[in-house]
Amino acid sequence: MSTIGATQPLPESRSSTGFRLAMLLPGALVTFFLILFALGLVVFLALRGNDGSLLGAGFTFANFITVASDPLYWTVTLRSLAIAGLVTLATVVTAYPVAYYLAFHAGRRRGLLLFLVTLPFWTSYLLRVFAWKIVLAYNGVLNSALIESGIWSEPTLAFLNTPAAVVVTLAHAYAPFAILPIYVALDTIPKSLLEAASDLGARPFTSFRRVVLPNSMPGVLAAALVVFVPTVGDYVTPALVGGPASTMIGSLIQAQFGKANDWPFGAALAVAVMLVILAVVLVVRSADRRFGSRS
């Protein structure tokens, strides 16, 4: 009798079930109110007409029709995608060697170097953008250095208020977000694979091309996604270091919720951008699965 009773699973106590529910409740509330509710409110506003009130009046598709038919928004959206794509490319290309060094050559200095990589998180994003504004300004650090070195005789306006300034500033701001996922992907590659490639006579570049790079592609795609998604809708950096030619879709959305006081149309622009980003995410996920199946 005692043996049979010992093999039967003990029923879960009510206190244990209540504890689990209590632990899940904060996350569920945050998910609902900060994500689902906010997203539903944006979609709701996008389908409303603007009558000057907070939630608009009536239901209409006029906002989406304007977004789809007006070439201005197509131009700004494509410009935003191009700038975000350049930022992503520049960030990933510069982050990969840093992550590679951290994973395979840092040794005892790895902890210190990882600390230095995450150090920008300790400073405000706005401070970093303002720092680049000082560097690229007419009388800024870069112009002063070029004049002192004799390369140029007078300051130039070619650095600030340009799309290139936006790309450089955003690439620097999001560099840690690219370095860390790539580093994690590289660090998880079994060293035995590299040793086997070396034993089979593969040269270092061949080992990198056939072993390291394919196995690190999930981290590269994750880094690209982490950088691309927020930069598409960024409006602070274009406003501070970019000019009229650097206006991005985030600036137009902010203007609709601000000076224009047209929240329904701003919500429609936001929904359109979310759909574009969703398409990009689906493409990246399919590419991730393809690389995962190969490896």
Describe the structure.
There is one protein chain. The protein has 295 residues and is mainly α. The protein has one domain: MetI-like (MetI-like fold, Orthogonal Bundle), CATH 1.10.3720.10. It is built from 14 helices and 2 strands. Strands 1-2 form a two-stranded antiparallel ribbon. Helix 2 crosses helix 14.
Q: What's the structural domain tally?
A: 1
Discrete helix count: 14
Query: What ranges have pLDDT less than 50 throughout 5 or more consecutive residues?
Result: 1-7
Order of helices and strands: HHEEHHHHHHHHHHHH
Level-1 CATH class name: Mainly Alpha
Task: Show the helix and strand layout.
Elements: H1 2-7, H2 14-46, E1 48-49, E2 57-59, H3 62-69, H4 71-104, H5 110-118, H6 125-136, H7 141-148, H8 163-173, H9 175-187, H10 191-199, H11 204-232, H12 236-241, H13 249-257, H14 263-294
Antiparallel strand pairs: 1-2
Helix pairs in contact: 2-14, 4-8, 4-9, 4-11, 6-8, 9-11, 10-11, 11-14, 13-14
Summarize the structure.
The chain contains 14 helices and two strands, in the order ααββαααααααααααα.
Features:
Spermidine/putrescine ABC transporter, MetI-like fold, 14 helices, 74% helix, mainly alpha, disordered N terminus, two-stranded antiparallel ribbon
